[in-house]
Fold:
Amino acid sequence: MLRFILSRFITGAFAFMAILWLGLWIIRQIPGSHAELAAWEAEAEQSTPAGQEAPLPGFYWSIGSIFSKSRGPFLQWNGTGNSFHLWACRYAKMDFGNSLVDGLPVKEKFRRALPWSMALQLPAIALLLLLSVWLALEAVMRSGSWSMAIADRLLTGLYAVPGFWLATVLLLLFANAECLQILPTGMHGAPSPNPYRLWWVAPQYYLLPLLCLVLPSLAYLQRLVRNGLLEHLQKPHWKRALSTGLPIRTALLMEALPAALPPLVTWMAGVLPALVSGSVIIEQIFSIPGLGRLLYQSIAVRDWPMVQFLFFLGSALTVLGFMCSDLLLRWLDPRLKQTA
Structure:
């Protein structure tokens, strides 16, 4: 097990560095800066000074001039005088920089937005897991019933619907003065600035965003668990469980469900980055001041210190999530140890 953990850690470290470098390189290629956008909004022309220094190389090495007539492409060593090295040194000292928009530390803006994303994502993930397992159990126990057939088609239709379209429809139906204005359109006018306390004071503010996060993914997870249950109903241990006189629901929970969990564990590898990154589209539509909306607004105004920090955190948690899912899969399925 120690050898497996070490190999996964080394692989994850290399994958994290590659993803991080690629993301930072893409950010460098995006035209425009925060200063240029501010100048455009003020209808002022901003010219580059003639004596401005050339930008630093992006990484420790770069490809030389491919179109040079005297020589072909070659690797050019840049040493430690590159933007990636300087950025990594700052982050190693826990210096994440300041926002270009308001001058606030990046850590402070992250600390303010994180509770809002957590308050929305945690209930959504818990509700999604509970509903998917319950619907999968009902689909197996009531196979062929018209109610489950209608539910399956309804969930399949919701899975094909984009999240922003579902959010728009729900707002038109339940937050529109011309239809049913029974729910708020967003977090404007929320009675509490604390996102966790808002669940107890006015939970209706979370209802529409929660539906937009849960409904599109429910069909996929329900099918994932249901297919796992149906696969294990053909195994000898299922017949042995029924021969003991257990009720079908109890036998499903005790025998078939644990064997059907590995695909669900693989899906949960993306839960960690989702908790931090939030939902960009949903938070923007419903004006939720979480990390997803912060990322969207930071990209819009070219606030690169904020974008780089959120990208760094999302990349690290993605690699960590896959490492944790590998360990859980080996714990749930001992056959993986024998294969390894």
